[in-house]
Design goal:
By secondary structure, this protein is an alpha+beta fold. The protein has three domains: 3-97, no CATH class; 113-173, SH3 type barrels (Roll); 180-277, Alpha-Beta Plaits. The protein has seven helices and eight strands. The protein has helices spanning 3-12, 17-46, 50-77, 83-97, 99-114, 195-227, 261-277; strands spanning 122-125, 128-135, 139-145, 154-162, 171-173, 180-189, 238-243, 248-257. A five-stranded antiparallel β-sheet has the order 4-3-2-1-5. The chain has a three-stranded antiparallel β-sheet with strand order 6-8-7, covered by helices on one side. Strand 7 (238-243) and strand 8 (248-257) form a beta hairpin. The model has no long low-confidence stretch (mean pLDDT 78).
């Protein structure tokens, strides 16, 4: 005997319409969820590309959720003339009881429709910074960076944050449209050093390490200019000079991949230090010092301890 015929037989034996609909609904959603689970497992085996596999599994999950929602409405709405009324009551109840969930779902729609961020992007949202590793219908999952570790390194925590935060504050994206950031290296050079030689060394080291980034960054920036109302920017390494009370300050400004900021800065410091050390003292780096030019008179009184 078929399943539907079995339910109809149970209904004739006294089962209420509500119980009949509930059992029918539960069996069908079990079948839908089982089919979705099997499809996701098949996707894991067949699709090798990580990005394609991720999006395919998300599409299957979304289709399953939509089918369950439609099935719920059709099953419990009853006759066709009550369909719109049922939809209204269900919508009102959901809106009242699940306000935050609905806002998170709206945030999910906004994230994918506007492209504010996507899996793989590095973002900062609600004071938390990390790489996006998953976007569900209500939450965004981040691999957190910073906190008790320095620079832009992972700290090992996986964090979930509500999608509703895209409406509640700014979202900083380090990688969308322009996947580079500007960074600076400040070099204090001693007065009396060969300034021309120092400038030339900094320029040569920066060109050797950063010119490739500058070329890629220029291509991305041209796309930014065509897409947004923004002026053209200088993405090549730039050197600025400032005289202070204690030293001559060189500032090297450059564009670098947002994920390699710390490592490239380390290479810059190493090569600059090596080149400066080979100048036989013509270029010297300095640190802050304090010169005591006068000492007020001191009166020292000494006494012998009493016995």
């Amino acid at each position: 005997m078929k399943f539907k015929e079995l339910l109809e037989e149970l209904q004739r034996l006294g089962m209420s319409q509500i119980a009949f609909n509930l059992i029918y609904f539960l069996v069908l959603i079990t079948f839908i969820l089982l089919a979705a689970w099997m499809t996701r497992r098949l996707i894991n085996r067949r699709i090798k590309d990580t990005s394609q596999r991720y999006h395919a599994k998300k599409a299957v999950s979304l289709a399953a959720y939509v089918m369950v929602a439609i099935l719920a409405v059709v099953t419990f709405a009853g006759r066709a003339e009550y369909f719109s009324v049922t939809i209204g009551f269900i919508s009102a109840g959901i809106a009242f009881a699940l306000q935050e969930v609905i806002l998170s779902f709206a945030g999910w729609i906004s994230i994918f429709s506007t492209g504010v961020y996507k899996p793989g992007d590095r973002i900062e949202i609600n004071g938390v910074k990390g790489d996006v590793i998953d976007i569900s219908m209500t939450k965004t999952t981040l691999m957190e960076i910073g906190e008790w570790v320095t620079s832009d390194n992972y700290n090992g925590r996986i964090l979930q944050i509500s999608n509703s935060f895209v409406f509640k504050g700014p979202v900083f994206n380090y990688s969308t449209d322009f996947p580079f950031v500007w960074d600076e290296v400040i070099l204090p050079v001693k007065y009396g050093s060969d300034i021309g030689l120092a400038h030339r060394i900094i320029e040569e080291v920066a060109a050797g390490l950063m010119n490739d980034y500058a070329e890629y960054a220029q291509q991305h920036w041209q796309k930014m200019v065509r897409k947004y109302l923004i002026e053209n920017a200088n993405v090549k390494p730039s050197i600025y000079l400032q005289l202070t009370d204690n030293w001559i300050e060189f500032t090297l400004r450059f564009v670098v991949d947002y994920k390699r900021r710390k490592s490239n800065k380390t290479q810059l410091y190493q090569q600059l230090l090596e080149r400066f050390n080979r100048t036989d003292g013509k270029v010297q780096l300095v640190s802050a010092t304090i010169d005591i030019t006068a000492v007020p008179p001191l009166k020292v009184e000494m006494s012998t301890p009493e016995t």
